[in-house]
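INFO  loader      accepted 1 record
INFO  loader      residues=473
INFO  predictor   begin
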Amino acid sequence: MTKPRVQYRCSECHHVTAKWVGRCPGCATWGTVNQVAGVRAVGATARRHRNPLSQAVPISFIEPQRARHYPTGVDELDRVLGGGVVPGSVTLLAGDPGVGKSTLLLKVAYSCARAGRRALYISGEESAGQIRMRADRTGCSHDEVYLAAETDLHAVVDHIASIRPELVIVDSVQAISSIDVDGVIGGVTQVRAVTTALTAAAKTAGVALILVGHVTKDGAIAGPRALEHLVDVVLHFEGDRNNPLRMVRGIKNRFGASDEVGCFRLHAGGIDGVTDPSGLFLEQRVAPVPGTAITVTLDGKRPLVGEVQALLATPSGGSPRRAVSGIDHARAAMITAVLEKHARLSIAVSDVYLSTVGGMRLTDSSSDLAVAVALASAYANLAVPTSAVMIGEVGLAGDLRRVTGMERRLTEAVRRGFTTALIPAGCGTAPPGLRILRAATIVAALQHLLDIAEHHSSPSAPQSIGRLAAGAQ
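INFO  predictor   done
INFO  writer      dumping tokens
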């Protein structure tokens, strides 16, 4: 037999060296080279043939029921998961500290327990007493929810084998460690080894496993990049500390669509799903005011109604100021330049303030037209009726481009009670009860804006319409 030889492997790029080095020669990362188990030289006489563990069968012989979903009891989470969790699957839920991950998963465990499915909650960061206090506060206490405060991997696996739950929640994977693996707790090597072992245990026992993951300051999932490849589902939990709205966004899903979004509201009594979040992003006022425009954006497959607010002010000195919240700063600057160049609206000399309502983030280019209309409305001091929505992408040539999912957006606008929609030319079929105004350019869109304002004129509308029409000619 050949004597085993020692090898050292990088945990990031898997580069193998014969001796230990502090910096990996392959990816130039420090502190990622670790010793691996000794291997024997494989020669012609050392090869052994092994029988496959399972026989290959035609795909039509595989029972589809093996990968069926069962609901978690939280409708908005089931929407993102594609119907629920799958036995033997591994789900990774990542989010900022304090966003509400533990509160949401405790409610998931409680809902599963009420449905007759035993749940096991493993906490590596909090004591069992702290989890119990949260359960009492949120009304999620149930005898079929088992709690364990563990940080050792072998103890977690033993709990799964002895309790035999149908759902296991590990909070968090960075807090669990194995004594058989070198490296610090939460390090790259430990996280990969823990995730691999828990995944194998979940698939062997046929239980659904949900792992809580930390995120870096840039919003990426902490740990090795391979962590996202090891699991079946990756979810991001997003939210602002100053706003009760929370969103669970699907990033990867082997059992369903990966572009779904679930909305929740976090409060002192727990967390609840929001089936109709569009109303949270609209400002409630008696009469329309200048500088506002409403759009319908698509977040994944979900249409959401949002409001854009704009304010133009005289600069106090020096260069004009640009302050943007909830909208991409580069796109806001581009739309301002398009209005200045093609619509001849003198906006660049003023301080420009742009914001969304309710902490909404408009990342879809379909909100460009709403931003342009809000800026034009603020420039002319002309109020846009709250019964109109603006949907379309603005090009650098001043043209309006079509966007995807227009029929779904218009249907949502009708459902929310809007009566007028300003959209690019050549797209969208008017649903019943909705007046469609089509424009090929931003100048044509401003002309339609004048028509809308004339139907909803105010005492100061004539002067405002004349100011906007001077630039739209």
